[in-house]
């Protein structure tokens, strides 16, 4: 059906090595270099932006019971590593306050 010769395998191996070398240098692109590892260049996912959007959504849902400013500051401080989920009490517990 398909015949694979040594030159095809060698070409594919070189291509994989070159792609892995050039795709790991995110710092060379000034527009996304400041995000570091919290921006996935292959899929375009910006974890910090997702975190900030979730903080805004939780603030809309919970109102004064949710500390949106503190949530947003933690997104920036931790670079979106802990994304809050408004339906998961464990992920938003640090940002909830009880009003009396």
Q: In one word, what is the shape?
A: rod-shaped
The Rg value, from CA coordinates, equals: 21 Å
- Count every helix, treating DSSP H or I runs of 4 or more residues as helices: 4
**Distance separating the two termini:** 75 Å
Major β-sheet profile: 2 strands, antiparallel
What count of domains describes the coordinates? Answer: 1
Order of helices and strands: HEEHHH
Structural class: mainly alpha
- Count the beta strands: 2
Share of β-strand residues: under 5%
Helix content: 40-55%
**Roughly what is the average pLDDT, rounded to an integer?**
77
- Strand arrangement across the biggest beta sheet: 1-2
Description:
The protein is mainly alpha-helical. It has four helices and two strands. It has one domain. It has helices at residues 6-23, 47-62, 68-77, 89-92, and strands at 39-40, 45-46. A two-stranded antiparallel sheet has the order 1-2. β1 (39-40) and β2 form a beta hairpin. The longest helix is centred in the N-terminal third of the chain and has 18 residues, at 6-23. The N and C termini lie far apart (75 Å). Mean pLDDT is 77; it is low at 25-36. Belongs to the insect eclosion hormone family. It is found in: Secreted.
């Amino acid at each position: 059906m398909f015949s694979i010769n040594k030159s095809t395998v060698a070409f594919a191996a070189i291509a994989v090595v070159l792609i892995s070398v050039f795709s790991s240098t995110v710092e060379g692109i000034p527009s996304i270099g400041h995000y570091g590892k919290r921006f996935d260049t292959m899929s375009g996912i910006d974890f910090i932006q997702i975190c900030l959007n979730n903080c805004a959504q939780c603030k809309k849902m919970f109102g004064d019971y949710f500390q949106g400013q503190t949530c947003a500051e933690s997104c920036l401080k931790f670079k979106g590593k802990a994304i809050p989920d408004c339906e998961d009490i464990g992920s938003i517990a640090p940002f909830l306050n009880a009003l009396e």
